Amino acid sequence: MSKNKIIKVDEAIRLTFGFGNEFALVHNPDFVHPSLELYPLTPKILKPKALKAVVMDMDGTTTTTEEICIHSLEYMIRKITARTDAAKWKGLNHESDYPNIIGNSTTKHVEYLIRAYQKYFNKEEFKKAFIFAVVWTLTLGRDKKRTEEVRINANHLIGKDFLHDKLITNLQTSEIDKTSLKLYKKYSSSFMDLNFTNIVKGSVDIYYQRYHELLIKIQKGDGEILAKELSHNPGKHFIEPMPGVAVFMALIKGLLGEEIEKLIPDLLNDLKSKDLIDGKEIKKLSKNLVALSKRFEQVPLKIAVVTSSIFYEADIVLTELFKVIDQQVKEWNISSIRKKKILRMFENYRNVYDGFVTASDSNEIRLKPHRDLYSIALHQLDIPQSDFNKVIGLEDSESGTFAIRAAGIGLCVAVPFAQTSGHNLEAASHIAYGGLPEIMLKRILYLK
Question: What is the pTM (predicted TM-score) of this model?
Answer without folding.
Answer: 0.91
